[in-house]
């Protein structure tokens, strides 16, 4: 049985049946999501980068970490999420951008691609 992965905005209640997984940077706005920042958070911030450039740069950042030993923790987190989804858990990747394009969309696409591999 395979679970679902959705990208979800932290400002809204998590849909029933989904486990929230915060993938953003440290934030004081909603401490239940932001006190323990995610190592999957996007280091490319706006307005320093455009939204599109930040997402594109994040895609390269994530791919590099999954292909090398630069950050084993990132690869471990991705592997853990894949395992959880493969056992049927529904995951809500929580960030601040959704429904706008977001680095969480990159994480979702990566999880789906690796799960199908």
What can you tell me about this protein's structure?
By secondary structure, the chain is of the alpha/beta class. The chain has one domain (5-15, 42-116). It is 43% helix and 12% strand. It is built from four helices and three strands. The chain has helices at residues 31-34, 51-67, 72-86, 103-116, and strands at residues 5-9, 19-22, 91-95. Strands 1-3-2 form a three-stranded parallel β-sheet, with helices on one face. Helix 3 (72-86) packs across helix 4 (103-116). The longest helix has 17 residues, at 51-67. The model has no long low-confidence stretch (mean pLDDT 87).
Per DSSP, the total helix count is 4
Please state the structural category. alpha/beta
Extended strand count: 3
Lateral arrangement of strands in the main beta sheet: 1-3-2
Please trace the helix and strand order, writing H or E for each element. EEHHHEH
Q: What helical percentage do the residues reach? A: 40-55%
Shape: globular
Low-confidence blocks of residues: none
- How many domains? The number is 1
Query: Which value, in Å, is the CA radius of gyration?
Result: 14 Å
Q: Strand share of the residues?
A: 5-15%
- Return the average pLDDT rounded to an integer: 87
Distance between the termini: 16 Å
Main β-sheet: number of strands, strand sense, barrel status? 3 strands, parallel
Protein name: DUF4326 domain-containing protein
Domain DUF4326: 20-108
Organism: Deinococcus wulumuqiensis
Pfam families: DUF4326
């Amino acid at each position: 049985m395979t679970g679902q992965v959705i990208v979800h905005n932290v400002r809204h209640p998590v849909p029933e049946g989904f486990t929230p997984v915060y993938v953003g940077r440290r934030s004081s706005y909603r401490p239940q999501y932001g006190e323990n920042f995610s190592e999957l958070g996007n280091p490319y911030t706006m307005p320093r980068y455009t939204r599109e450039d930040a997402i594109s740069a994040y895609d390269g950042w994530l791919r590099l970490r999954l292909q090398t030993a630069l950050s084993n923790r990132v690869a471990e987190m991705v592997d853990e999420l894949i395992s959880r989804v493969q056992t049927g858990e529904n995951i809500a990747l929580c960030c601040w951008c959704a429904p706008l394009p977001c680095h969480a969309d990159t994480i979702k696409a990566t999880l789906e691609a690796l799960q199908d591999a």
